[in-house]
Amino acid sequence: MKISTSDLILRTVTEGDIQEIARMWEYPQETTIDKAYEALNYMEATHSKNRQKQICHLCLGVFQREQPNVIIGWCGLDGEAEIGKTVLFYMIDEKYRNRGYATQCAVELINYAFKDMAYDIIYGGCAKNNAGSYRVMQKAGMIQNSFNKNGDHIFSIDRDQFLNAKKYLSVREKRDMSVEVRFYDEVEDQLLKFAVIIARSGGKWVFCRHRERTTLEIPGGRREPGESVEEAARRELYEETGAKEFSIWPVCVYSVVRDDAEESLGGLYAAEIFSFEKELHSEIERIVMLEELPEDNWTYPEIQPKLMEEARKRGVSS
What we know:
single chain; alpha+beta; Nucleoside Triphosphate Pyrophosphohydrolase; 5-stranded antiparallel beta sheet; 8 helices
């Protein structure tokens, strides 16, 4: 089983993940390979019992799309913990918290429970002093309606609430929603979270192809703590294309506004690449160089062509 979000891959783990299972199963401590195999066998056995409206236990590894082989957490639905209830759960490695990942997990699991497993109600909860998890429950559309004896919060969402919530649209449905791409000459630096680079080399456009996708992507990614936006652009260009010698310059600021999300801002850059490393050392399988811009086959067709069009309007060579 595999679910993709804007940032994550949620999937069943296999023997090929055994080292990662050992590292993360008893987070924050590591466990032994033998115990990791016990955990894997447990997950496989319980997954095989899952039926519509009768989930025994579903546990998925949480992976970043950019690091598809590194487990950063767990999430799932547990039908064994409480009699008569199926309860949503998640755990994200502390290094990756406060990025919206737990909310993405919660939303997709609720989506799966209602759409694929025909549930009428799903439960969730959090410790009484865990403000972050409380917000995750709220963002996922759950309603806090009771308490455990120790004061911990109990949440739930039923089918009617699910059907009326826009956040539970499928990935394809979300892509069909209204997406507005805006452009600015300047924005306060601290608001810029991403860098995207329109790159050319030898008269051709340079695109990336991810190992797990067949679509084309423009080099770019998230700005890391302590980086300037240009430093992020330089790093992402190197990591995703292997660009060794290049010139790079800012084009403008772009933002993406969806119906169900706040405005997300980033720096749009252009680059001319003069030489490449022999091998790529990232999640990118290979680079693709084209004389003409593709008409389709974009990973983000509602966004990427608009970035290319704006860059060309602002003088990036065609």
